[in-house]
Specification:
With 455 residues, this protein is mainly α. The protein has one domain. Helix content is 69%, strand content 0%. α6 runs antiparallel to α7 and α10 runs parallel beside α12. The protein is globular.
Length: 455
């Protein structure tokens, strides 16, 4: 697949994505691209992004500074960045709170305020937040303010970890910045960072931590204990993070080809098992995995969605055009640009044999989320439960960005233009959808109704 073919396919896809936002056609579902016109200035800002970012990217990628090597960043710069972004994101989250489109935030607020483990799908999260709230209650006054502050910290941490992951992938500053900007501008990442009131900001941070540690292990810079420990403890923080587990097979396969790979993996597995036994102590006792799994099974099988029991969709709905349409729009909302880059450039990578160990690792993580998207029931509808799948944007954006960078090494001029257009498309999408989930909510609810069944 030549440079021109990849550029044309990607450019056509990005152009179509932009046209959806500028003209907002009345398709069956509109919430994935609607409301660029909710403020008079937004379409003009969007047009400016489209006109300015491609030439700006072309200029930036040709600067000598873009080709400089990636020097280590001092720890105090990292800490300082967190201390700047954290209060900034907290202030934004409090000044411009996200609108609620489901009752999940209410459930979270209630559990943290009362210090209860009302949902073991969030076992470790509720345990940590509930005990933190008991200590800091006098400082915040309301549990809403506390959670937005905590989630702002998680958002800032997630962004820095995604940037750190990009540094593991890029061979110079320009490549690392390109991947970072594509990851940061993905809606599923950006919306969760600004003090978003839900469970998902911390899940995004753990996912970003896993990508960073996993890439470090794949590159031979970190011991396999780190990604294995993140995946193990993360699944107790939020049960959906068990999806990180299958990609450990790729890490193990790469590690086994190295000297002392077997004892390193054995140590990693031992430490992870011990950690999994310790985290059950507060709620169930040491190594009480059967009791924990029984509680999770109970919470996952409440039967509130389309199925009589369980949190998975009925088979007939999985195979329906309605579900296919909802999945498509969910992907468009969360990271349409990243997924487009991933699909087009992965074909080039396979044909060009440019698939390396980081690509295999990232692809294995992304692949684990596909059956999740297909089978899990968004109880509040695809619109109301969009954030159930939101943190996958960290993976699709980093993988799509890295594949674009690999292609760009062979096609630097075209790469700069495609990069600029991709960033413009992400920016236009953020202008349309950031904090806009409740705009024209009743119309979108008719397009994507609740799956809740009263029994």
């Amino acid at each position: 697949m030549s440079c021109i073919v990849v550029a044309v396919l990607t450019g056509a896809g990005l152009a179509a994505y932009l046209l959806l936002h500028f003209f907002e056609p009345s398709l069956a579902i509109t919430w994935s691209y609607a409301h660029l016109g909710r403020r008079a200035a937004l379409p003009w800002i969007a047009l400016a992004l489209v006109l300015v970012l491609p030439p700006l990217a072309l200029w930036g990628t040709t600067r000598p500074s873009a080709r400089r090597s990636l020097d280590p960043i001092p720890w105090y710069w990292v800490l300082g960045s967190v201390l700047v972004l954290w209060p900034l994101f907290t202030a934004i989250g409090l000044a411009y709170p996200n609108g609620q489109v489901s009752i999940d935030p209410v459930d979270l607020l209630s559990n943290v305020d009362k210090g209860t483990l009302g949902n073991t799908r969030w076992y470790l999260m509720l345990l940590v937040l509930g005990n933190m709230w008991k200590v800091v209650r006098p400082l915040f006054g309301t549990v809403d303010a506390f959670l937005r502050c905590f989630n702002a910290l998680m958002g800032a941490t997630a962004l820095l970890l995604l940037a750190a992951s990009a540094r593991r992938l890029g061979r110079d500053r320009g490549e690392a910045i390109a991947i970072t900007l594509l990851a940061w501008s993905a809606f599923g990442v950006a919306q969760l960072t600004m003090g978003y009131l839900e469970i998902y900001p911390s899940i995004l941070a753990i996912t970003a931590l896993y990508l960073w540690t996993g890439l470090g292990t794949v590159r031979g810079e970190l011991h396999p204990t780190w990604p294995m420990l993140v995946a193990t403890v993360g699944s107790f923080w939020y049960v959906g993070l068990i999806l990180l587990g299958p990609s450990l097979v790729v890490i193990a396969a790469i590690e086994l080809r190295r000297r002392r790979g077997v004892p390193r993996l054995a140590l990693a597995a031992t430490i992870s098992v011990i950690a999994a036994g310790i985290v059950t102590v507060p709620g169930f006792g040491p190594f009480a995995w059967s009791a924990y799994l029984a509680a999770v099974h109970h919470d996952l099988h409440g039967g509130y969605g389309l199925a009589e029991t369980g949190s998975l969709l009925p088979a007939d709905f999985m195979l329906s055009c309605v579900h296919l349409r909802e999945m498509f729009h969910t992907v468009l909302l969360i990271d349409g640009v990243g997924v487009l880059l991933l699909l087009v450039t992965s074909g080039w990578a396979l044909m060009s044999r440019a698939v390396d160990a980081p690509v295999l690792f990232l692809a294995s993580v992304a692949a684990s989320f596909l059956p999740y998207l297909v089978t899990v029931d968004p109880v509040w509808g695809a619109l109301g439960d969009w954030d159930l799948f939101s943190y996958a944007a960290a993976i699709t954006s980093v993988l799509g960005g890295y594949l674009l960078v690999l292609w760009g090494r062979e096609c630097p001029r075209l790469f700069a233009v495609v990069l600029g257009l991709a960033l413009a498309a992400s920016g236009v999408h953020l202008l349309a959808r950031w904090n806009a989930m409740t705009v024209d909510y009743q119309r979108h609810l008719l397009e994507s109704p609740f799956h809740v069944r009263v029994r």
